Amino acid sequence: MSSKVTNRIALSLIVLCAIIMAGILAALLGYILVNGVTSISWHFLTSESDPFLAGGGIKDQLWNSFYVLIITMILTVPIGTSGGIYLAEYAKPGKLTSFIRSCVEVLASLPSIVVGMFGMLIFVNYFQFRFSVLSGALALTVFNLPVIVRVTEDGFHSLSSHQKEGGLALGLTHWHTIKTILLPAAFPSILTGIILSAGRVFGESAALLFTAGMSTPNLNFTNWNPASPTSPLNMFRSAETLSVHIWAVNTSGIIPDIQTVANGSAAVLVICVLLFNLLARGLGKVINNKLSGKS
């Protein structure tokens, strides 16, 4: 068999696999959006869910999803970026560094249900945070931390060594070189990874079943006192997120319009995740263009 024939066969197989993958993804997204977009309305997005009557919405669940996400990213980003900077710039090759990287890899490969059980044992029971926003955010921090660490480390490793050497040659300290030269240069890839990981966290459900809970109080959006049980900012109340709501409605819901609520919630969740991905790509391009223009 000639090399040209082999090349054509290999290319055909690669293209076929790409078409199959894209087709499956398009079919899945299309099915969710076609069945769910018609259920989305302003009333659906701004009304409270009802466990018994038809016509309920997802206002509280949608808020809980974004609130848990914000708290998670506040906890994850500083710790994860610091860990990535340490591994990329300060950690010396050796058994300890290899062990740390192995721990990060193992943590990244843990099933989310295992992280949820760990969160329930530690945050819900041991620290007695109960089923709450805080317990869910801490569990998702454990779930998301290795991703941010790897994104930051890879962002630093992708930089040219001349940037670091130039800063050190000018008499800058190692930390000042990282702060003023390396971190701004790696920022676009780090930011893209952070936004993509936010989309991953936003759609997570298994880890939140055992930590944030499967119910939510009717939130009073006129009361922003964090100490109030019905305040949207209370971190110690139960917080059923949108993804958990979809699971609960499909498995144990008794409302007459189960299918409508489930389809609409799934469509909103998919649209939000798609927006996270588009935002990551858009911001990455804008920042890269600005940095290219400056250079």
UniProtKB/TrEMBL annotation:
<keyword id="KW-0472">Membrane</keyword>
<keyword id="KW-0812">Transmembrane</keyword>
<feature type="transmembrane region" description="Helical">
    <location>
        <begin position="129"/>
        <end position="149"/>
    </location>
</feature>
<feature type="transmembrane region" description="Helical">
    <location>
        <begin position="9"/>
        <end position="34"/>
    </location>
</feature>
<keyword id="KW-1003">Cell membrane</keyword>
<keyword id="KW-1133">Transmembrane helix</keyword>
<dbReference type="InterPro" id="IPR000515">
    <property type="entry name" value="MetI-like"/>
</dbReference>
<dbReference type="GO" id="GO:0035435">
    <property type="term" value="P:phosphate ion transmembrane transport"/>
</dbReference>
<dbReference type="GO" id="GO:0005315">
    <property type="term" value="F:phosphate transmembrane transporter activity"/>
</dbReference>
<feature type="transmembrane region" description="Helical">
    <location>
        <begin position="181"/>
        <end position="202"/>
    </location>
</feature>
<comment type="similarity">
    <text>Belongs to the binding-protein-dependent transport system permease family. CysTW subfamily.</text>
</comment>
<protein>
    <recommendedName>
        <fullName>Phosphate transport system permease protein PstA</fullName>
    </recommendedName>
</protein>
<keyword id="KW-0813">Transport</keyword>
<dbReference type="InterPro" id="IPR035906">
    <property type="entry name" value="MetI-like_sf"/>
</dbReference>
<feature type="transmembrane region" description="Helical">
    <location>
        <begin position="261"/>
        <end position="280"/>
    </location>
</feature>
<dbReference type="InterPro" id="IPR005672">
    <property type="entry name" value="Phosphate_PstA"/>
</dbReference>
<feature type="transmembrane region" description="Helical">
    <location>
        <begin position="66"/>
        <end position="87"/>
    </location>
</feature>
<dbReference type="GO" id="GO:0005886">
    <property type="term" value="C:plasma membrane"/>
</dbReference>
<feature type="domain" description="ABC transmembrane type-1">
    <location>
        <begin position="62"/>
        <end position="280"/>
    </location>
</feature>
<dbReference type="Pfam" id="PF00528">
    <property type="entry name" value="BPD_transp_1"/>
</dbReference>
<feature type="transmembrane region" description="Helical">
    <location>
        <begin position="99"/>
        <end position="123"/>
    </location>
</feature>
